[in-house]
Amino acid sequence: MVLSTSPAPPDPPAAPGSPAGSTASATSTGSDLADLIGVLAMRHHEEYESAAARHQLTGIQARVLALLARRPLPMRRLAERLKCEPSNITGLVDRLEARGMVRRRADPADRRVKLVVVTDEGRDAAEQVRSAADFTRAPLAGLSEEDRAALRELLRRVLG
């Protein structure tokens, strides 16, 4: 299935006598929004994967580094955040550790738990991928500061 990357054409005007805010119109608007959000997510994912590849990382490796750049995390928490099995995280961390981008250390609060910590090299790589993934820069540059602030607030409300 191929998704169009351009927005769907606007709905035709409401039929005479039908309320402007009809359920059909609200449903159509909801579908249009869902489609546009889907296209946005797909474009972001493609750009992020491409930016990661330019830095010899897979998209998931770049996401691990981005999460760890915020703070060290237990491997189980990484798996939860990335919506994958803990056994997958072990392999990811092994490969990143072999490249000197992360290291494991005991959690000072519970020595049985292993934290994954990003190294300076891993933090630099995460920042380079983030900077290279410029998908949002060009479209957002066309919005006023007020529009960007409104969009940020709407997205925060939608995401909870």
UniProtKB/TrEMBL annotation:
Bias-annotated ranges (Low complexity): 17-29
InterPro entries: HTH_MarR-typ (IPR000835), MarR/SlyA-like (IPR039422), WH-like_DNA-bd_sf (IPR036388), WH_DNA-bd_sf (IPR036390)
PROSITE patterns referenced in this protein's UniProt entry, alphabetically: HTH_MARR_2
Compositional bias segments (type: Pro residues): 7-16
Matches recorded under Gene3D superfamilies: Winged helix-like DNA-binding domain superfamily/Winged helix DNA-binding domain (1.10.10.10)
Residue span(s) of domain HTH marR-type: 30-160
Pfam families to which the protein is assigned, alphabetical: MarR_2
Renumbered residue ranges of the record's region Disordered: 1-29
Coiled-coil regions listed: none
Name of the protein in its database record: MarR family winged helix-turn-helix transcriptional regulator
Organism of origin: Streptomyces amakusaensis
